[in-house]
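INPUT
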Amino acid sequence: MARTAQDNGIDHVIDVGTAGGHTPSEYWKWSFSQALDSEDGVLNHRPHGDPITKTFRPGWQSRGDSFIVKVPEGPDNDTDNNGSNTMKKLIAASLVALSLGVSGLASAEPIKVGMITTLSGGGAGLGIDVRDGFMLALKKAGNSEIEVVIEDDGQKPELAVQIADKMIQSDQVDILTGIIWSNLAMAVVPSAVAQGKFYLSPNAGPSALAGAQCHENYFNVAWQNDNLHEAMGQYANQDYKKTFIMAPNYPAGTDALTGFKRFYKGELAGEIYTQVGQTDYAAEIAQIRASGADSVFFFLPGGMGIAFMKQYAQSDVGIPIMGPGFSLSQDILAAVGDAALGVKNSSQWNKDIDNEANKAFVAAFQAEYGRLPSLYASQGYDTANLILSAAAKASVKDADAFRAALKEADFESVRGDFEFGNNNHPIQTIYVREVIKDNGGLTNKIIGTAFEKHQDAYAADCGMK
Amino acid sequence: MTISRETAINVTLALILLAMPFLALQLGKPFYVTLATRMAILGLAAVGLNLALGLGGLVSFGHAAFFGVGGYAAGILASHAFAGQPLNLGLFALPGTNQMLVVWSVAVLAGGLLAAAIGVISLRTSGVYFIMITLAFAQMTYYFAISWPAYGGEDGLSITIRNVVPGINTLIPINYFLVCYALLLTALLIFALIRGSRFGAALQASRQNKLRVASIGIAPFRIGLVAFIISGMITALSGALYADLNRFVSPSMLSWHMSGELIIIVVLGGVGRLWGPVAGAMLFVVFEFVLGGLTERWQFFLGLALLAVVLFARGGLVGFLAGRMRHG
Amino acid sequence: MQTALFIEQVLNGLQLGVMLFLMAAGLTLIFGVMGLINLAHGSLYMVGAFACATVAAATGSFWLGLAASLAAAAAAGAIIEILVIRRLYERDHLDQVLATFALILIFSEGTRWLFGSFPLYLDIPPLLRGTVPIPGGSRYQLYRLAIIGVGVAVAVGLFLLISKTRLGMRIRAGESDREMIGALGVDIRTLYTVVFALGAALAGLAGALVGALQSVQVGMGEPVLILAFVVIVIGGIGSIKGALVGALLVGLVDTMGRFLLPQLFGLLMNPSQAGLVGGALASMLIYIVMAVILWVRPQGLFAARG
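OUTPUT
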């Protein structure tokens, strides 16, 4: 699909193989001639239409944007008629090389990243953590070649789609990232990647995008949605025979319980689906108490989880509970309070994972923002570092080379080993953590490993190798 | 009578909205075509609401239900067409389709049926009860959509390929805009015809005084119900268009925030005015887009602006520009 | 064991109902006296919870926080009444809906501006921690029993206030004839501000009490607000008695629906399916009940005025 790059030193034009460089008025004529030809085969398999509109890029020199000065040339193109550009390129390239410890020829094509994330409303905490982690990585790398456009989706799918359209058509970003919620990802990702953009997911991993709808330009830098639940199911086998499981009644909730059951071998004491956004769990807690369960697994993200854990602890039920790391991540622990103490949860990352990259990340995050990072922040940070690592190897304008560079995942992940499977989803270790008190505050500590090099269950459905 | 000020404003609005996407293409800013399409579609949804709210005085706080049902009609039919499986409705099976004309008909029909069901119960009440019961019905559809796994639940439903109209390539944004614009004009024509008809006169009279209308032998309940059904149909049609614009439907189209936004659009533009909803939609989309780009606290300022309009600029944009309504 | 579970669920339903009553009482009082429909009531609930959490975190005392929540919500209520709401009494319901919808946006985003995006911590006071035995052999959370107690006290207090005090007399007069009590020399502007602040304080109290059970975060008022509207519509708008009956009905129906429907469907299908279908139907149940009640009685159970 979108290949690029003819760069004559004056004008950047990306095309999708159907049209060359169009000036605005040429485009205008083109769209009308195409309009008459409605059964055009090229258009039909491209769902969201208008190949030119989505990919047409006016000459950047006429735009007067600040990023003009940052434009150095790609490796395949050495026509540089601007001395100061060269200088900047050199400095920037060496910074990238330094920060990543990559030696050899680093090519720094300016990259425009569009970040669509949730910065307002009840779910804003997650988006803010992803954004802060991402920006921290760029800052630490001293990279000025990557320009980031950030917009708030307000957790609304339509708004996310609108912003994605704007970023692709108007801002002409090369890479999209930032979406927190599966339903927003499902709205944005398929069309973005079909238009030849890269999408790097820093949080959501819906099963459809890992399986049948996987795509070469979609990389998940967090996890497939089921992963952490599967890990808890696996871990529960050690100690428990009769678990009560609950999740909200929506796809991520049913996926969570399916994931848990995929690895859990014991008996189920009960299975309940609660209302989305529910805040009172007295009825469910009463059922748990009466069920004779020896453990409880719950997936209740955000405020729902806070409410459940507080009420559960207050009710003196006494049956141990466990959940995925989302429900006990750093950003909500303070709000749950001591009710979270001792709760086991699964995560692919924790701040005590012993590697240099992670130590540096945790220290820098605390210094920069004055709070402990959450797993969302770690995912944002890894996403930015993945982009930096790929940018050091290939120009983003050369989609094939850049894709290959992304797939190598040649960056120092804060979770230690990190590699992509055939479906561009991580193959990674998933730990079990426990909430402890540390210096008066609540935090997580790794107590075991549920999976080594775990891959998601949908990879086989994906046609990619 | 010479051309009134309001007519002049209406013509100007129509031309601005029509010119916007073409201008955007000339300037090489194709994204604004999408924005203009959004304005036309939200305007269409609000024209539907304006019929109930502006003419009939029925403050429906549940129009998102019709908007969403239209959207789901498009999404469900397209997904069945894509998967090649017919849609089993119990009594008969409906083949999936990607033909917009069919999708629109189904959306309008579904919207009308839902409006009839909701209207029959809701119109027995009035005032605040009516506001709240329409809200409650919309919430019911919202929760239903969230917990109905067959069509994606809260994750929503993607439309892989935008539905088609014979002879027009809807994949090209400007074409799709023109399709939406044409439907908007049609709906406005219907609105104008209804407003000028005997039915419209009775509807407006029943808004002002139900008893008096009843006393001359017209049943306000039936008039209100018919208006509510037509209103629901128009809004459902816009929902189908909106789904195709975004290539995506989700329960958030059914949420009470959506109902609130539709009311905001009508009031921003001018309640009961022919082009009020369109003016409101244009203003709302610009506001959301410009402020959203400036600050992540844009909802705060949207709230302030809205408050200012309600408190100090009654009559909305069209009312502000055109002066008082001739009859009201 | 089933009996014990059943008793516990009934208590849960009552407790949810009482909490809804605290919200609905203010809402219906404001509608009854001023004829105003206030969507921003949920924001006042949020203000109460945030005030309580902030003060409790600073002083270490839940009780000071509770006092602060009453004060903060009443103050916020009085301020918006004087600045905004006052101009809406003579307007139609459409303008009221819109203006108060705008207030929701302002309050939500303003709160996030002040307190950040992360949820705050608020726990129940040590005095009310723990559980007590209930008939049937199970145990019930003391704090939830206390909430039921507060709800009963507020219901009795409101009844006494309205039927026995001078303020109550004016409120009743204001409900029946607005012009007349103005003509009799009652300062109607102050009366309205006081009533609005009283309703706001009740919402703030509910927010603080519930904040200790749930998560104190932006947007927490919206789901409760919609339930509270369902309550007053079922009960009859403007009627405190209706609000009480409606709240208990909604609380019980919602809790029992969530508890019993999946079990009912469990007789017909496998547990996982039953959980999904039952859960889906349970989330719509109160709206169905509301539709049925309004079908039979379009003005609600205890209509005070139309």
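end of record. The domain at 5-322 of chain B is CATH 1.10.3470 (ABC transporter involved in vitamin B12 uptake, BtuC).
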